[in-house]
Design goal:
CATH architecture of the domain at 39-107: Orthogonal Bundle
Largest sheet: 2 strands, antiparallel
Oligomer: single chain
Shape: globular
Number of strands: 2
Strand order of the largest sheet: 1-2
Helix content: 40-55%
Radius of gyration: 13 Å
Order of helices and strands: EEHHHHH
CATH superfamily of the domain at 39-107: Transcription Factor, Ets-1
CATH class of the domain at 39-107: Mainly Alpha
Number of helices: 5
Strand content: 5-15%
């Protein structure tokens, strides 16, 4: 099981403006590589990033790290049966950056 340090994205509006803070777990200044994560690690990642309620959808669908790296925007928006707002944030601020980081680290 992974431990994450929560860092708030500086580009997000503050809660007083009606937006929800998005947190990004960082390991050694970089996003973690989920390629070897189990389902529990994926669930814990999303709980640590402030999506506790939505994290259960990843468990229900048995999404492990390899599956997470293969997910498309449409998979997250429609396949997990979660509300549109959180689904968009999960994809844009977490799934997509994790996929990009994984591709960059494997390209070298």
């Amino acid at each position: 099981m992974k431990n994450y340090c929560n860092v708030t994205d500086s580009g997000m509006e503050d809660k007083a403006n009606g937006s929800v803070e998005t947190k990004s777990p960082v390991e050694n200044g970089q996003l973690p590589d989920p390629s070897n994560w189990g389902v529990v690690d994926v669930v814990n990642y999303f709980k640590a990033t402030g999506f506790e309620e939505q994290a259960t959808a990843f468990q229900d669908q048995e999404i492990d790290g390899k599956s997470l790296l293969l997910m498309t925007r449409n998979d997250v928006l429609t396949g997990l049966s979660i509300k549109l707002g959180p689904a968009l944030k999960i994809y844009e601020y977490h799934v997509k950056p994790l996929q990009t980081q994984h591709l960059k680290s494997n390209a070298s």
